[in-house]
Amino acid sequence: MGRDRLAALRAQRQNVTPDPGQGDYEMQARPSPSTNGTGNGTGTDPLSAFYAEATAIQDSIQEFDDNVTRVAEFHSRSLNALDDAATQANAAQLERLTDETRQLSNSLANRIRALEKPTGAGPDAQIRKNRIDVVRTKFMATLQRYQDVERQYRQQYRQRVERQFKIVKPDATPEEVAAVVNDDDQGGGSQIFAQALTSSNRYGDSRAAYREVQERHQDIRRIEQTLGELAQLFNDMATLLGEQEEKIDAIETAAAGVAHDTEGGQKHTEVAVKHARSARRKRWICFWLTIIIILAAVGIGVGVYFSQHPSKSSSSG
Questions:
Q1: Given a cut of 70, is residue 84 above it in pLDDT?
Q2: Positions of the region Disordered (predicted)?
Q3: Is pLDDT larger for residue 4 or for residue 63?
């Protein structure tokens, strides 16, 4: 018996304290109940998982907003760069940041779309809707800020191109300036600039101005591409908002219909119960009336019988 108890204690200790060589494996094979094996600490509660994802999305939106601020800083550096090496290094960093921000914004849009999938009616549905509205509003506000930043610096780049062109051709007409600033091939912008270079008496300044104009045109093209992508993303989110509101309205309408039908059914049930009670009451009344009538008939019959045979009753006395 002592050996059996000792063996049992050893087995219990082995279950409580894993072998050091297998500790890592057992830690992975036995997920904590609080995480349900998912690692997000949300358990199996769908509402908790929803809140965790909504919070994570808000953190990513903050990162997105920080990137927009950095994009503005790189644009400012580009406009103030003093040499070609600094300009090229800044342009490379700006391009990488723009690509990273594009991927982040697309990822956020997809996650918000997944978050907005209708899950039915009820008190949780309104809680979800309110939280989704907060997340979507913050994301769309950051998208709008990004567009504003890009438009602002596109305008500043165009002004820089105009100043550089006027260094080459101070007497340029508004039409010529517009053709060069907008990099309009149909309007002959490149040809106008080339002709101005050949006729300029400030060759060194003209060549430097020409290089900067080419760089600014590249910056403007990148900004316009970004603006197009942001506009599409913003429109997609606005369209999704309308679609989700229609779906939510449909769900709420259906839920209201079910509630109305349930209420109507309850009223019909109450009426049926009242009718059943009334019918049962009437049956009891009929029963007792029948009993009374039978008793009355019996009493009348007995009275008639004894009234017709008084002698028998007296003789018996």
A1: yes
A2: 1-47
A3: 63
* Residue 74 and residue 93 in contact, taking contact as beta carbons nearer than 8 Å: yes
From the number of C-beta atoms within 10 Å of its C-beta (0-12, 13-18, 19+), residue 278 rates as exposed
pTM for the structure as a whole? 0.62
* SS3 (DSSP) at 118: coil
Distance separating alpha carbons of residues 28 and 22, to the nearest angstrom = 10
How many C-beta atoms lie closer than 10 Å to residue 225's C-beta? 13
Q: Residue 19: its pLDDT value, please?
A: 46
Integer CA distances (angstroms), 214 to 37, 166, 180, 183, 211, in order? 55, 15, 10, 9, 5
3-state secondary structure of 242: helix
The string of pLDDT tens digits covering residues 160-198 is 999 988 888 888 889 888 888 887 655 567 778 777 777
* Predicted local distance difference test score (pLDDT) of residue 240: 74
Dihedral sign computed on CA atoms, order 231, 237, 238, 239: positive
Q: Give the chain's largest Cα–Cα span.
A: 167
* Cα distance between residue 47 and residue 139, in whole Å: 21
pLDDT mean over 108-131:
84
CB of 54 closer than 8 Å to CB of 131: yes
Nearest to 162 by CA among 217, 219, 106: 217
Strands, DSSP E only, in the chain?
A: none
CB of 116 closer than 8 Å to CB of 237: no
Q: Which two tokens stand for residue 3?
A: 């050996």
- In which element (H, E) is residue 141 found? helix 123-168
d(CA 109, CA 93): 24
For residues 65 and 142, the answer to whether their CB atoms sit within 8 Å is yes
What whole-number distance in Å separates Cα of residue 106 and Cα of residue 69? 18
* φ/ψ (deg, to 5) at 279: -65, -40
The CB density around residue 207, as the number of other CB atoms within 10 Å, is 13
Q: Which helix (H) or strand (E) holds 315?
A: helix 310-315
